[in-house]
Write a structure and sequence with these properties.
Elements lengths: L7 H15 L7 H23 L17 E4 L3 E6 L2 E6 L8 E4 L12 E7 L2 E7 L12 E6 L6 E4 L3 E5 L2 H23 L5 H38 L2 E8 L12 H24 L3 E6 L20 E3 L5 E3 H13 L11 H4 L1 E4 L7
Parallel strand pairs: 7-10, 9-14, 10-11
Antiparallel strand pairs: 1-5, 2-3, 3-4, 5-6, 7-8, 8-9, 12-13
Bound molecules: zinc ion (ZN).
Length: 360
């Protein structure tokens, strides 16, 4: 097919046909079906728009999915007191039994979730409760904080006066453990016949271990980001500036490939967590290109690549390496990268080390 992508009339008739089919009795709740339908056509529309704008690599939704996320909307969700505690009841299509799931003892029933998603995640099903939060009033604070997301320290922030370092030792050790588990299971799994009983057994056990470690990593990231956002609120910060790693950073040697992956993953997660947590408090989040922010001296503007954990400049300025990154990200956002405005900084910058973030 060349020229115009004439998908739209086709989509319309397809949608109409689907709606006719959907009006018959179905195993799922009508709104759950609607959700899948709208998700599918949304993807399709998105594809059409991309093609129209000249993106030749865009492909229509074509992969068959083994597991689809099922969504229950508010009207299909009920809570009840079961024999052994609280339960959530999710209605299905007429004539079909609802899905009933026991809730943990501490579960808070005060807020009713807007939707519940049933998600398949590496060998097990999970229920994701999605809540609606009232939009926070935008605060008009002047404060700006720059954040450097690094390999050694997940977050280092600088607000013009104080540098905060969030220690990543706990998270890093979890990553090492994760790699170890993958390697040791990989060896065992390689020795079995694919899809044999033992093979499945090992694969299941492997994901169970990985899932637990991933949850611990997420827990650590949640604790760091919550602490950070709360700190911002206390200090009247109006804007959080994050450095974007997807920009040019080619001349930095990551060492191992795995490091880079980890880094990008953590960056994405931290950005996502900080963004939604800050939004809830009415703090703005900006993402800027972080190139040169780790090399420029905040004191004299000279460019120089630090080789150790400390940044040492010819002018005598010495500072924590990731702290320099955070200072420069803030400066860059203000349009002052390399300006020697920080002449008095070296002596006046406060320094705070965050303690280890553990699950206790
Ligand atoms: Zn310098």
């Amino acid at each position: 097919m060349h020229g115009s992508w004439g998908y739209f009339p086709c989509i319309k008739s397809c949608e109409l046909w689907l709606d006719k089919q959907l009006s018959k009795s179905q195993p799922l709740h009508s709104q759950s079906i609607q959700e899948v339908r709208s998700r599918y056509f949304k993807n399709w529309h998105g594809f059409c728009v991309l093609r129209r704008n000249g993106d030749k690599t865009a492909r229509p939704p074509h992969k068959e999915k083994r597991f689809q996320t099922t969504t229950w909307k508010k009207s299909a969700i009920r809570f009840k007191e079961g024999l052994f505690g609280k339960q959530v009841v999710m209605s299905n299509g007429r004539g079909n039994k609802p899905l009933v799931v026991d809730l943990p003892k501490k579960f808070n029933l005060e807020n009713i979730p807007a939707i519940i998603n049933l998600v398949y995640n590496r060998g097990q099903y999970e229920l994701h409760f999605v809540y609606k939060i009232d939009k926070a009033v935008k605060c008009e604070s002047e404060g700006i904080v720059g954040v450097d997301i690094g390999e050694v320290h997940p977050m280092v922030s600088h607000d013009g006066l104080i540098t905060n370092i969030f220690n990543g030792r706990h998270i890093r050790s979890l990553y090492r453990l994760r790699n170890k588990v993958i390697a040791s299971f990989g060896k065992k799994i390689d020795r079995c016949k694919r899809h044999s009983q033992r093979w499945w057994h090992l694969v299941k056990r492997k994901w169970k271990r990985i899932r637990k470690i991933d949850n611990q990593i997420m827990d650590g990231l949640h604790k760091h980001t919550t602490k950070f956002v709360k700190l911002c609120e206390e200090r009247d910060i109006g804007t959080i500036v994050l450095g974007d790693l997807t920009g040019i950073r080619g001349n930095i040697n990551y060492g191992r490939r795995a490091n880079q992956k980890l880094h990008q993953w953590a960056f994405g997660k931290i950005t996502q967590l900080v963004t939604y947590k800050a939004k809830a408090l009415g703090i703005k989040v900006e993402v800027i290109d972080e190139s040169y922010t780790s090399q420029t001296c905040p004191n004299c503007g000279n460019k120089h690549k630090p080789s150790t954990r400390d940044y040492k400049c010819k002018c005598g300025f010495t500072y924590h390496r990731d702290g320099v990154g955070a200072i420069n990200i803030r400066q860059k956002y203000l349009g002052r990268l390399g300006d020697p405005v920080a002449a008095t900084m070296a002596s006046s910058i406060g320094f705070q080390l965050e303690t280890r973030c553990c699950s206790a």
